[in-house]
């Protein structure tokens, strides 16, 4: 029997991309999935897909940046399913643009969703996990939470905050038998780059990377093996290793490569 059979798992940002693939992968292992995001229609069609494959899913519409909606989301899940075994904090948005182009509202929104959203979800599930002395919090960060890139300072700082929060929390909750796992994907082929905050800059980031399904498989493996952190891809691990040794050299390398990755529009 799968390790995830009968587990209750909340996946935030489950209506698309990595979250959707992760929900499907956990459901295929026999877990009951609470799928959360703002787009009810997309969540409903995902729940139908999970149920058609013999799985079990609960739709919970919530904006993770809204603390009251997050509280209601977790109350709904606990009332309907009895507990939360695993929380996958995946909901996130990007923000492209030079520091001088970045508006206070856009910066606030990316921090509200990527940082506070993740904190509100964690704070809402922790009392339930602590009471049961068991649980896993899986935080989807990014390789740019290990080494920042130009023209996306707001997004990078949000992912550095996820790293810091996770490191701190991991030690606090270990006595309660709760794991904190950080996943750092690299470029993944999703709709992430199509949102207004990613499209508004004159720079465009090519996100043709690995598939959401591959990232989902890595998330399941990290959960099964109770990993501390997974930096996805050899290239990303090499980058973070080199950055520890020679950050100035890495700055120059990034400036060179970035011009090919994020081309200004003509
Ligand atoms: N794609 C990449 O290259 C890449 C690389 C590294 C890390 N990541 C990280 O991976 C995670 C997933 O990204 P993705 O590529 O799968 O992006 P995506 O395809 O754009 O999906 C993002 C998901 O987050 C949800 N979401 C956005 N704002 C939300 C909010 N305020 N409340 C609740 N849900 C919200 C969206 O649903 P609704 O719009 O329905 O709310 C959607 O389900 C993010 O944390 C991202 O930072 C992505």
Task: Please provide a written account of the structure.
- The structure is a single chain.
- This protein is α/β, with parallel strands linked by helices and 266 residues long.
- The protein has one domain: NAD(P)-binding Rossmann-like Domain (Rossmann fold, 3-Layer(aba) Sandwich), CATH 3.40.50.720.
- The protein is built from 9 helices and 9 strands.
- Helix 4 runs parallel beside helix 5 and helix 8 runs antiparallel to helix 9.
- The longest helix has 29 residues, at 104-132.
- NADP nicotinamide-adenine-dinucleotide phosphate (NAP) binds at residues 12-19, 37-39, 42, 63-65, 90-93, 113, 117, 140, 142, 185, 187-188, 190-192, 207, 209.
Strand-helix topology:
Layout: E1 8-12, H1 17-28, E2 32-37, H2 40-52, E3 56-61, H3 67-81, E4 86-89, H4 104-132, E5 135-140, H5 153-173, E6 178-184, H6 196-199, E7 203-205, H7 212-224, E8 229-231, H8 234-245, H9 247-261, E9 262-264
Parallel strand pairs: 1-2, 1-4, 2-3, 4-5, 5-6, 6-8
Antiparallel strand pairs: 7-9
Helix pairs in contact: 1-7, 3-4, 4-5, 8-9
Features:
266 residues, alpha/beta, Rossmann fold, seven-stranded parallel beta sheet, two-stranded antiparallel ribbon, 9 helices, 50% helix, globular, binds NADP nicotinamide-adenine-dinucleotide phosphate
């Amino acid at each position: 029997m799968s390790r995830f059979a009968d587990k209750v798992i909340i996946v935030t940002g489950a209506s698309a991309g990595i979250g959707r693939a992760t929900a499907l992968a956990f459901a295929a292992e026999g877990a009951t999935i609470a799928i959360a995001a703002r787009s009810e229609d997309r969540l409903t069609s995902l729940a139908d897909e999970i149920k058609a494959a013999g799985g079990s899913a609960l739709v919970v519409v919530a904006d993770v940046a809204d603390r009251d909606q997050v509280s209601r989301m977790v109350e709904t899940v606990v009332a309907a399913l009895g507990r939360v075994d695993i929380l996958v904090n995946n909901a996130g948005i990007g923000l492209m643009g030079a520091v001088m182009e970045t508006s206070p509202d856009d910066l606030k929104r990316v921090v509200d969703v990527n940082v506070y959203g993740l904190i509100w979800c964690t704070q809402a599930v922790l009392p339930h996990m602590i009471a049961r002395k068991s649980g896993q919090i899986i935080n989807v960060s990014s390789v740019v939470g290990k080494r920042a890139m130009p023209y996306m300072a707001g997004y990078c700082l949000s992912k550095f905050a996820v790293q810091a929060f996770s490191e701190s929390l991991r030690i606090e909750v270990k006595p309660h038998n709760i794991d904190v796992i950080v996943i750092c994907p690299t470029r993944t082929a999703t709709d992430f780059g199509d949102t207004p905050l990613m499209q508004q800059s004159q720079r465009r980031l090519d996100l043709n990377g690995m598939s959401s399904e591959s990232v989902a498989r890595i998330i399941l493996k990290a959960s099964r093996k109770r990993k501390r952190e997974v930096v996805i891809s050899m290239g990303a691990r090499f980058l973070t290793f080199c950055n520890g040794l020679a950050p100035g050299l890495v700055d120059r390398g990034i400036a060179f490569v970035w011009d090919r990755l994020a081309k200004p529009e003509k």
